[in-house]
Design brief:
The chain is of the alpha/beta class and 391 residues long. Helix content is 41%, strand content 30%. Helix 1 packs across helix 6, helix 3 packs antiparallel against helix 8 and helix 5 packs antiparallel against helix 6.
Length: 391
């Protein structure tokens, strides 16, 4: 594939992004964005709740689903349906009527979950007071399971400790595995590790124990161009494509892009809230539309635009980061300086994405903030246009 091909793709993506900028939908939903979003103990939210802020605290009741994004997320009350949470620290100490999907640096579970628990984090702690009605699936640096798991436990981690009760099977890939004297596994135990599991006296395993030693894979030379795309060349190419797309947007709509980047500084809570809504609600709505034969083209187009928007969400975030750095030394007005700021910001994002275990979460944060910043900027622009319109 030639360089012109990738430049052409980048330009097309940029133009589609501009179309999305001009057609931001007006959505009706129960959303709250602030420095601290709180549902008091005597409050009941009758519908799904989308919450975004530095701190999200749920002490009351949510009768629908909870979608929460923030630095710290704490659920002490009751969520009737599923809970989706992404933050630095996520604490589920209350009752959840369905599944919990959480991502963060630290995830602590101490309440009752009727469904599955799916977690990606640096540290997972399932307290002895926790009850998980379904399966536990996780990827974590360290994991400690002290509570009751009604289904299977499957996951991967560095150091995994089981002190609670598992009604089903346990299948793990871990650097080290420890079963304390209070551990009870009613099914089979299968694990992959270079070290043999430490099964302390008193631990009970009803089924069989199977251990696999991970194989040392020999690096095999990959044929061009696959080696290029999967290695450093692919990352460089991805950076160049994003930069070309950003350049097109700067040339065609510099004020809109600058406004979107500024929204990350002035309204970060609203940005991440709108971003979460678009990221999670758009595919659901598109699939619902596709149920009818007439709506299939509309649903497919929506999914394509959604995918393009996710890819290009890095552009306003990259511009924001670059402007924050360059702005310390000189004025960042002008298209040329905007291009330089964008290039610097995209390099920073690419480097952050290489951090082990955290790259996914950094990418998720970029998508949430980038998508939401576009919506916030467009809503503000349209509100200003209505205010200045004659009559």
């Amino acid at each position: 594939m030639s360089r012109r091909f990738f430049v052409g793709v980048s330009v097309i993506l940029a133009l589609v992004f501009l179309m999305v900028l001009s057609a931001v939908p007006v959505l009706a939903f129960d959303a709250r964005g602030a420095t601290t979003v709180a549902v008091s103990g005597d409050e009941t939210v009758d519908d799904d709740l989308y919450a975004a802020g530095n701190a999200v605290v749920i002490d009351g009741r949510v009768d629908g689903e909870l979608w929460a994004v923030g630095n710290t997320i704490t659920v002490n009350g009751t969520v009737a349906d599923s809970t989706m949470a992404a933050g630095r620290t996520v604490v589920i100490a209350g009752d959840v009527g369905h599944a919990v999907r959480a991502a963060g640096e630290v995830v602590m579970i101490g309440g009752n979950l009727d469904g599955d628990l799916m977690v990606g984090c640096g540290e997972l702690n399932v307290a002895s007071t926790a009850t998980i009605g379904g399966d536990l699936l996780f990827g974590a640096g360290t994991a400690r399971i002290d509570g009751l798991v009604g289904g299977d436990v499957k996951g991967a981690g560095g150091a995994v400790t089981i002190s609670g009760q598992v009604e089903g099977d346990v299948d793990l890939d871990a650097d080290s595995l420890t079963l304390s004297p209070t551990a009870v596994i009613h099914g089979d135990l299968a694990y992959t590790s270079e070290e043999e599991a430490v099964i302390q006296a008193g631990a009970q395993i009803a089924g069989t124990i199977t251990r696999e030693v991970p194989e040392v894979e020999e690096e095999q030379a990959k044929a061009f161009p696959f080696a290029f795309f999967s290695g450093t060349g692919g990352k460089v190419l991805g950076f160049l494509m994003a930069l070309v797309a950003g350049l097109v947007i700067i040339l065609l709509a510099p004020r809109r892009l600058a406004s979107a980047a500024a929204s990350l500084r002035t309204r970060p809570g609203s940005s991440v809230g709108w971003g979460a809504l678009i990221l999670f609600a758009t595919p659901i709505a598109a699939i619902i539309v596709c149920i009818t034969i007439v709506g299939i083209p509309v649903g497919l187009i929506a999914l394509v635009l959604w995918g393009v928007a996710i890819y290009l969400a890095q552009i306003p975030v990259g511009l924001f980061l670059g402007r924050c750095i360059i702005g310390r030394f000189r004025n960042v007005e002008g298209k040329a300086i905007m291009v330089g700021s964008l290039a610097l910001g995209l390099v920073i994002l690419k480097l952050l994405g290489l951090i082990p275990h955290l790259g996914f979460f950094i990418g998720l944060a970029v998508v949430l903030f980038g998508l939401g910043a576009v919506v916030v900027a467009e809503r503000r622009r349209r509100a200003e246009a209505r205010e200045t319109a004659p009559g």
